[in-house]
Specification:
The chain is built from 23 helices and 13 strands. The protein has 494 residues and is α+β, with helices and mostly antiparallel strands. The chain has four domains: 162 residues, Beta Polymerase, domain 2 (2-Layer Sandwich); 87 residues, Hydrophobic Seed Protein (Orthogonal Bundle); 152 residues, no CATH class; 50 residues, no CATH class. The strands form four sheets. The chain has a seven-stranded mixed β-sheet with strand order 3-4-5-2-1-8-9. The protein is elongated and about 90 Å long. GO terms for molecular function: metal ion binding; nucleotide binding; nucleotidyltransferase activity; tRNA binding. Its cofactor is Mg(2+). This is RNA nucleotidyltransferase.
Length: 494
């Protein structure tokens, strides 16, 4: 597809505005390297983002200097530097903002590279190169294979990345099969950039991913997890997830997701549970409050736990599907089965324990509300709902609301009103009873004193009994709680 010259001109104007803002630090660093006889160029994401009108204070550079030469130059330029990536030719540095109110500038400078890959491993053998074009050829996509030489501010684009940026297309700088064979993680990055940037993966790259999807299995679970996390936290995760499923990558990294395409959902309105889950994800994102940069409300977005729960809440359905007499379909206890599957998958992807537990718990609880609309809950049931959700309550509110994807307007409005009512009751009880920290009216020490018993299992049983009373009847005064404890104790002795 030919590129509209007007689009290119608009991109160039944006880039000039952004580059002018970062130019003082970048130009000065370029002068330092040029004075020492070395080339320096801004590369990768910061260049791409400049054309998209985005400013970054974390700048990636490529250079003809060796890592040791780079260390010496950055030590003179910056306020701090580190060499943790030296084996890969990368040296980092930080410089405090020189202008009033200016943010710190963080740079990473990497010696030109030409990587040689072992087909059985994702880790490259690092071979330093001697040209900028050669270094750019080893990058994942053409939109990330552009550079700006400094201090000259000369634009370098050997693979027509700017034209692809204007077309909003992800294309590899070398043959797609070669690129993905060299580094299979680039296939995941294609899906991630589709979600982050809203770009389309070109046909050659899509075909290569379909043919080579199984090669993703040589990549570590941690690296796959990191790409999946970035995808889910992007502005439009659906676009990236659709790439994963359509190309077969999801079969290897998140197989429970494509498995949902074979099912029908409980509303009998959507093509399949896969489509339902994507809609739930989109609706959950819309209910996030504020952002991490400007956090407001109880669930500032992007919230990884909420998004994972929205995407995976129904993955127990394939294992629990039953065809009923009369043509109906049931998924009894899919929330319990799904919670176990969620925990297993997230552990396999090396997610941290807190995330695994939170997403699994939300999956287990996501159907709890649906009994509320059928009849009024007692205060006891509301207390249990809040206590079982614990710190996940605000996320559970959003997950439950998002799970309503019916096209039946009356049903949707009825469910919404029912949840509005539940939230009002929770707020009222919380104000009256401090629901977030429900405890029995007598603690362990009081139980032992009243019953005249030492620490042991009996104290725990008594505590549990009093907690049940607290759930059922709300707060009790000391004398009532004491009488109830003694009555329970008498029944135990009998």
């Amino acid at each position: 597809m030919p590129t509209d010259p007007t689009d290119l001109l608009q991109l160039q104007r944006r880039a000039l505005t952004v580059l002018a803002d970062l130019a003082p630090d970048a130009l000065e660093l370029g002068e330092v390297f040029r004075a020492a006889g070395h080339e320096l160029a801004l590369v990768g994401g910061p260049v791409r983002d400049a054309f998209l009108g985005r400013v970054s204070n974390d700048l990636d550079f490529a250079t003809s200097a060796t890592p040791d030469e780079t260390i010496a130059l950055l030590a003179a330029w910056g306020d701090a530097h580190w060499d943790i990536g030296k084996a890969f030719g990368t040296i980092g540095a930080r410089r405090h903002g020189r202008r009033r109110g200016g943010a710190d500038v963080v740079v990473e400078v990497t010696t030109y590279r030409t990587d040689a890959y072992d087909p059985a491993s994702r880790k490259p053998e690092v071979v330093f190169g001697d040209t900028l074009d050669g270094d750019l050829s080893r990058r994942d996509f053409t939109v990330n294979s552009m550079a700006v030489r400094v201090p000259e501010l000369t634009f370098v684009d050997p693979f027509d990345g700017l034209a692809d940026l204007a077309r909003r297309t992800l294309r590899t700088p070398v043959a797609a099969r070669q690129s993905f064979d060299d580094d299979p993680l680039r296939m995941m990055r294609a899906a991630r950039f589709a979600a982050q940037l809203g770009f389309t993966v070109d046909d050659d790259a899509l075909a290569a991913i379909e043919d080579m999807a199984e090669r993703i299995t040589i990549v570590s679970a941690e690296r796959v997890r990191d790409e999946l996390t970035k995808l889910l936290l992007s502005p439009s995760p659906r676009e990236g997830l659709e790439v994963l499923v359509a190309t077969g990558l999801a079969d290897h990294v998140l197989p429970e997701l494509p498995a949902l395409r074979l099912e029908i959902d409980e509303h009998h309105r959507h093509k399949d549970v896969y489509e339902h889950s994507l809609i739930v994800l989109e609706q959950a994102i819309a209910l996030e409050t504020g952002t991490h940069d400007a956090p407001t409300g109880p669930v500032p977005g992007p919230d990884l736990v909420l998004r994972l729960a929205a995407l995976l809440h129904d993955i127990g359905k394939p294992a629990t599907r039953r065809f009923e007499d009369g043509g109906g379909v049931s998924f009894h206890h899919h929330e319990v089965v799904g919670a176990k599957l969620v925990a297993r998958r997230l552990k396999a992807l090396r997610f941290d324990k807190a995330t695994v537990q939170a997403v699994s718990r939300l999956t287990e609880l996501h159907l709890r509300f649906h009994g509320y609309g059928e009849g009024a809950w007692t205060d006891s049931a509301v207390r249990r709902y809040v206590t079982d959700a614990g710190p996940l309550l605000d996320r559970l509110h959003r997950l439950t609301r998002s799970d309503c994807t019916t096209r039946n307007r009356r049903k949707a409005e009825r469910l919404s009103r029912a949840y509005d009512d539940l939230e009002v009751r929770i707020a009222r009880l919380r104000e009256q009873e401090e629901l977030a920290s429900i405890r029995p009216d007598l603690d362990g020490a009081a139980i032992m004193e009243i019953l005249g018993i030492p620490p042991g299992p009996t104290v725990g049983k008594a505590y549990k009994h009093l907690l049940e009373l607290r759930m059922e009847r709300g707060p009790l005064d000391h004398e009532t709680a004491r009488a109830e404890l003694l009555a329970w104790w008498s029944a135990q002795e009998g």
